[in-house]
UniProtKB/TrEMBL annotation:
Gene3D superfamilies: Copper binding periplasmic protein CusF, Glutaredoxin. The keyword Transport does not apply. Residues 114-278 form the Thioredoxin domain. PROSITE patterns: THIOREDOXIN_2. This is Thioredoxin domain-containing protein. Keywords: Copper. It comes from marine metagenome. Belongs to the SCO1/2 family. Pfam families: CusF_Ec, SCO1-SenC.
Protein backbone atom coordinates (compact mmCIF):
# COMPACT_ATOMS: atom_id res chain seq x y z
CA UNK A 1 0.00 0.00 0.00
CA UNK A 2 2.82 2.43 0.86
CA UNK A 3 4.52 1.80 -2.46
CA UNK A 4 1.28 2.37 -4.39
CA UNK A 5 0.75 5.68 -2.61
CA UNK A 6 4.37 6.59 -3.28
CA UNK A 7 4.06 5.96 -7.01
CA UNK A 8 0.83 7.96 -7.09
CA UNK A 9 2.58 10.90 -5.47
CA UNK A 10 5.28 10.86 -8.13
CA UNK A 11 2.74 10.65 -10.95
CA UNK A 12 0.91 13.64 -9.53
CA UNK A 13 4.22 15.49 -9.36
CA UNK A 14 4.91 14.88 -13.04
CA UNK A 15 1.41 15.52 -14.34
CA UNK A 16 -1.50 17.25 -12.65
CA UNK A 17 -4.01 16.08 -15.25
CA UNK A 18 -5.52 12.67 -15.93
CA UNK A 19 -6.71 13.75 -19.40
CA UNK A 20 -4.90 12.38 -22.43
CA UNK A 21 -3.39 15.15 -24.53
CA UNK A 22 -2.77 15.17 -28.26
CA UNK A 23 -0.13 17.20 -30.09
CA UNK A 24 0.50 17.72 -33.79
CA UNK A 25 4.15 17.11 -34.73
CA UNK A 26 6.43 17.13 -37.76
CA UNK A 27 9.77 15.40 -38.13
CA UNK A 28 12.11 13.13 -40.07
CA UNK A 29 12.22 9.38 -39.37
CA UNK A 30 15.67 8.24 -38.20
CA UNK A 31 14.87 4.58 -37.54
CA UNK A 32 11.97 2.16 -37.23
CA UNK A 33 12.23 -0.75 -34.78
CA UNK A 34 9.16 -2.85 -35.43
CA UNK A 35 10.19 -5.57 -32.97
CA UNK A 36 10.18 -2.93 -30.21
CA UNK A 37 7.17 -0.95 -31.50
CA UNK A 38 9.43 2.11 -31.58
CA UNK A 39 10.03 4.80 -34.19
CA UNK A 40 12.85 7.31 -33.79
CA UNK A 41 12.02 10.78 -35.12
CA UNK A 42 14.06 13.97 -35.32
CA UNK A 43 11.12 16.27 -34.70
CA UNK A 44 10.56 19.99 -34.75
CA UNK A 45 9.41 21.93 -31.72
CA UNK A 46 6.01 20.74 -30.47
CA UNK A 47 4.28 23.96 -29.32
CA UNK A 48 3.26 23.91 -25.71
CA UNK A 49 4.99 20.62 -25.00
CA UNK A 50 8.52 19.86 -26.20
CA UNK A 51 11.54 21.50 -27.76
CA UNK A 52 13.12 19.92 -30.87
CA UNK A 53 14.57 16.51 -30.04
CA UNK A 54 15.53 13.18 -31.53
CA UNK A 55 13.20 10.86 -29.66
CA UNK A 56 12.08 7.23 -29.73
CA UNK A 57 8.29 7.19 -29.80
CA UNK A 58 6.15 4.14 -29.14
CA UNK A 59 3.51 3.11 -31.65
CA UNK A 60 0.62 0.79 -30.76
CA UNK A 61 0.25 -1.30 -33.90
CA UNK A 62 2.63 -2.30 -36.70
CA UNK A 63 0.04 -1.12 -39.20
CA UNK A 64 0.63 2.40 -37.85
CA UNK A 65 4.06 2.50 -39.52
CA UNK A 66 3.21 0.47 -42.60
CA UNK A 67 4.70 2.17 -45.67
CA UNK A 68 7.00 4.43 -43.64
CA UNK A 69 10.76 4.49 -44.31
CA UNK A 70 13.89 6.04 -42.86
CA UNK A 71 14.33 9.65 -44.09
CA UNK A 72 10.60 10.12 -44.62
CA UNK A 73 9.46 13.57 -43.56
CA UNK A 74 6.19 13.02 -41.70
CA UNK A 75 3.52 14.75 -39.74
CA UNK A 76 1.98 12.73 -36.93
CA UNK A 77 -0.06 12.86 -33.78
CA UNK A 78 1.61 12.44 -30.38
CA UNK A 79 -0.74 11.17 -27.68
CA UNK A 80 0.45 11.69 -24.10
CA UNK A 81 -1.24 10.01 -21.13
CA UNK A 82 -0.29 10.25 -17.46
CA UNK A 83 2.09 7.31 -17.70
CA UNK A 84 2.73 6.66 -21.38
CA UNK A 85 2.87 8.16 -24.86
CA UNK A 86 2.61 6.98 -28.44
CA UNK A 87 2.72 8.30 -31.99
CA UNK A 88 0.02 7.63 -34.58
CA UNK A 89 -1.73 9.01 -37.67
CA UNK A 90 1.41 9.36 -39.77
CA UNK A 91 1.29 11.24 -43.07
CA UNK A 92 4.31 11.33 -45.37
CA UNK A 93 5.17 14.87 -46.46
CA UNK A 94 8.26 14.08 -48.51
CA UNK A 95 11.84 12.81 -48.23
CA UNK A 96 14.87 14.18 -46.44
CA UNK A 97 18.11 13.45 -48.29
CA UNK A 98 20.35 14.23 -45.30
CA UNK A 99 20.16 12.39 -42.01
CA UNK A 100 22.45 13.30 -39.14
CA UNK A 101 24.91 10.65 -37.97
CA UNK A 102 24.33 11.41 -34.31
CA UNK A 103 26.18 8.30 -33.08
CA UNK A 104 29.56 9.18 -34.60
CA UNK A 105 30.99 10.71 -31.44
CA UNK A 106 30.48 7.56 -29.45
CA UNK A 107 32.67 5.54 -31.80
CA UNK A 108 35.83 7.28 -30.54
CA UNK A 109 38.18 4.94 -28.68
CA UNK A 110 38.54 7.36 -25.77
CA UNK A 111 34.92 6.74 -24.84
CA UNK A 112 34.55 2.97 -24.76
CA UNK A 113 31.82 0.89 -23.19
CA UNK A 114 33.09 -1.11 -20.24
CA UNK A 115 32.46 -4.82 -20.08
CA UNK A 116 30.72 -6.36 -17.08
CA UNK A 117 33.32 -6.81 -14.35
CA UNK A 118 35.58 -4.00 -15.55
CA UNK A 119 36.19 -1.03 -13.27
CA UNK A 120 34.79 2.34 -14.24
CA UNK A 121 36.98 5.41 -14.46
CA UNK A 122 36.67 7.87 -11.59
CA UNK A 123 34.71 11.02 -12.41
CA UNK A 124 33.68 14.16 -10.54
CA UNK A 125 30.39 16.03 -11.01
CA UNK A 126 28.29 18.39 -8.87
CA UNK A 127 25.58 17.59 -6.34
CA UNK A 128 22.47 19.76 -6.06
CA UNK A 129 24.24 22.04 -3.59
CA UNK A 130 26.96 22.77 -6.13
CA UNK A 131 29.62 20.76 -4.30
CA UNK A 132 32.02 18.55 -6.25
CA UNK A 133 31.52 14.83 -5.67
CA UNK A 134 33.46 11.95 -7.15
CA UNK A 135 32.30 8.45 -7.93
CA UNK A 136 35.22 7.05 -5.91
CA UNK A 137 34.10 8.95 -2.80
CA UNK A 138 31.33 6.36 -2.56
CA UNK A 139 33.65 3.35 -2.75
CA UNK A 140 32.75 0.44 -0.49
CA UNK A 141 29.12 1.12 -1.42
CA UNK A 142 26.99 -0.12 -4.29
CA UNK A 143 25.87 2.63 -6.68
CA UNK A 144 22.80 2.53 -8.92
CA UNK A 145 23.21 5.15 -11.64
CA UNK A 146 20.57 6.43 -14.07
CA UNK A 147 20.71 9.21 -16.66
CA UNK A 148 17.97 11.81 -17.00
CA UNK A 149 17.37 15.46 -17.87
CA UNK A 150 14.71 17.81 -16.54
CA UNK A 151 13.42 19.00 -19.92
CA UNK A 152 12.31 15.51 -20.97
CA UNK A 153 8.48 15.59 -21.01
CA UNK A 154 7.74 12.05 -22.25
CA UNK A 155 6.19 10.20 -19.27
CA UNK A 156 7.57 6.77 -20.17
CA UNK A 157 11.17 8.02 -20.47
CA UNK A 158 13.03 10.24 -17.96
CA UNK A 159 9.98 10.82 -15.70
CA UNK A 160 9.47 7.04 -15.55
CA UNK A 161 13.12 6.56 -14.59
CA UNK A 162 12.65 9.09 -11.77
CA UNK A 163 9.59 7.23 -10.50
CA UNK A 164 11.45 3.89 -10.53
CA UNK A 165 14.40 5.39 -8.71
CA UNK A 166 11.96 6.71 -6.13
CA UNK A 167 10.53 3.24 -5.59
CA UNK A 168 14.05 1.84 -5.16
CA UNK A 169 14.96 4.65 -2.76
CA UNK A 170 11.93 3.70 -0.70
CA UNK A 171 12.82 -0.01 -0.85
CA UNK A 172 16.39 0.62 0.25
CA UNK A 173 15.69 3.49 2.63
CA UNK A 174 17.34 1.73 5.58
CA UNK A 175 20.40 0.47 3.67
CA UNK A 176 23.70 2.25 4.23
CA UNK A 177 25.60 0.43 1.47
CA UNK A 178 23.66 1.64 -1.58
CA UNK A 179 23.55 5.05 -3.27
CA UNK A 180 20.99 5.88 -5.98
CA UNK A 181 22.36 8.56 -8.32
CA UNK A 182 20.48 10.26 -11.14
CA UNK A 183 22.94 12.04 -13.45
CA UNK A 184 21.66 14.78 -15.76
CA UNK A 185 23.42 14.78 -19.12
CA UNK A 186 22.00 18.23 -19.97
CA UNK A 187 25.20 20.11 -19.22
CA UNK A 188 23.84 23.28 -20.83
CA UNK A 189 20.74 23.67 -18.66
CA UNK A 190 20.57 21.37 -15.63
CA UNK A 191 22.68 23.31 -13.15
CA UNK A 192 22.71 22.30 -9.48
CA UNK A 193 20.16 25.07 -8.83
CA UNK A 194 17.82 23.78 -11.54
CA UNK A 195 18.12 20.21 -10.30
CA UNK A 196 17.54 21.28 -6.70
CA UNK A 197 14.41 23.21 -7.68
CA UNK A 198 13.18 20.27 -9.74
CA UNK A 199 14.06 17.28 -7.56
CA UNK A 200 15.10 18.68 -4.16
CA UNK A 201 11.76 18.12 -2.46
CA UNK A 202 11.57 14.57 -3.83
CA UNK A 203 14.93 13.38 -2.57
CA UNK A 204 15.18 15.44 0.63
CA UNK A 205 13.89 12.68 2.91
CA UNK A 206 16.27 10.06 1.52
CA UNK A 207 19.87 9.81 2.63
CA UNK A 208 20.83 7.55 -0.27
CA UNK A 209 19.11 9.24 -3.25
CA UNK A 210 21.02 11.97 -5.06
CA UNK A 211 21.01 13.96 -8.30
CA UNK A 212 24.22 15.09 -9.98
CA UNK A 213 24.75 17.94 -12.44
CA UNK A 214 27.20 17.74 -15.33
CA UNK A 215 27.50 21.52 -15.80
CA UNK A 216 31.20 22.29 -16.09
CA UNK A 217 32.04 18.59 -16.16
CA UNK A 218 31.47 17.58 -19.78
CA UNK A 219 34.57 15.40 -20.06
CA UNK A 220 33.70 13.47 -16.90
CA UNK A 221 30.10 13.13 -18.06
CA UNK A 222 31.19 11.68 -21.40
CA UNK A 223 33.52 9.26 -19.63
CA UNK A 224 30.87 7.96 -17.23
CA UNK A 225 28.01 7.80 -19.72
CA UNK A 226 30.03 6.11 -22.45
CA UNK A 227 31.47 3.48 -20.13
CA UNK A 228 27.93 2.56 -19.09
CA UNK A 229 26.48 2.86 -22.61
CA UNK A 230 24.31 5.96 -22.28
CA UNK A 231 24.34 8.04 -25.45
CA UNK A 232 23.03 11.59 -25.90
CA UNK A 233 23.46 14.33 -28.47
CA UNK A 234 22.21 17.74 -29.54
CA UNK A 235 22.60 19.41 -26.12
CA UNK A 236 24.17 22.62 -27.42
CA UNK A 237 21.95 22.67 -30.51
CA UNK A 238 18.82 22.42 -28.31
CA UNK A 239 17.81 19.33 -30.28
CA UNK A 240 18.39 16.64 -27.67
CA UNK A 241 18.30 12.93 -28.36
CA UNK A 242 19.27 10.10 -26.05
CA UNK A 243 18.91 6.47 -25.12
CA UNK A 244 18.18 5.17 -21.62
CA UNK A 245 20.65 3.28 -19.44
CA UNK A 246 20.83 2.44 -15.75
CA UNK A 247 23.71 0.56 -14.15
CA UNK A 248 24.75 -1.05 -10.90
CA UNK A 249 28.30 -0.28 -9.80
CA UNK A 250 30.03 -2.42 -7.18
CA UNK A 251 31.96 -1.32 -4.07
CA UNK A 252 35.24 -1.34 -6.01
CA UNK A 253 33.93 0.64 -9.03
CA UNK A 254 33.25 -2.55 -11.01
CA UNK A 255 30.39 -2.58 -13.50
CA UNK A 256 27.97 -5.28 -12.33
CA UNK A 257 24.90 -4.91 -14.54
CA UNK A 258 23.33 -2.56 -17.10
CA UNK A 259 19.61 -2.11 -17.77
CA UNK A 260 18.69 -0.77 -21.21
CA UNK A 261 15.65 1.29 -22.08
CA UNK A 262 12.68 2.01 -19.85
CA UNK A 263 11.15 -1.45 -19.62
CA UNK A 264 12.88 -2.54 -16.40
CA UNK A 265 10.75 -2.87 -13.29
CA UNK A 266 11.81 -1.60 -9.88
CA UNK A 267 10.83 -4.88 -8.23
CA UNK A 268 13.14 -6.85 -10.55
CA UNK A 269 16.03 -4.42 -10.08
CA UNK A 270 15.54 -4.63 -6.32
CA UNK A 271 15.97 -8.40 -6.45
CA UNK A 272 19.07 -8.04 -8.63
CA UNK A 273 20.63 -5.53 -6.25
CA UNK A 274 19.89 -7.70 -3.23
CA UNK A 275 21.44 -10.71 -5.00
CA UNK A 276 24.60 -8.77 -5.85
CA UNK A 277 24.84 -7.58 -2.25
CA UNK A 278 24.96 -11.22 -1.21
CA UNK A 279 27.50 -12.22 -3.86
CA UNK A 280 29.86 -9.23 -3.98
CA UNK A 281 31.72 -8.53 -0.79
Amino acid sequence: MKIKKYILAFCLYISCSNTDKEYAAIGVIQDIKEDQNTIIIDHDSIPGFMMPMVMPFNFEHKKDVLGLSIRDSVKFKLVVTTDNSYACDFTILGRSEIIDDYDEFWDEDEYRNKEIGERLSDVSLLDINGDSISLSSLNEQFRFISFIFTRCPIPNMCPAVVIKNGVLANNFRDYNNLELIMVSFDYAYDSPTVLKDYYGSLISSYQNWNVWSSVGGISDLYMLSSEIGCEFWGIEENNIGHNLRSALIGPNMELLKVWEGDEWLAKDVRKDIENYMEIVK
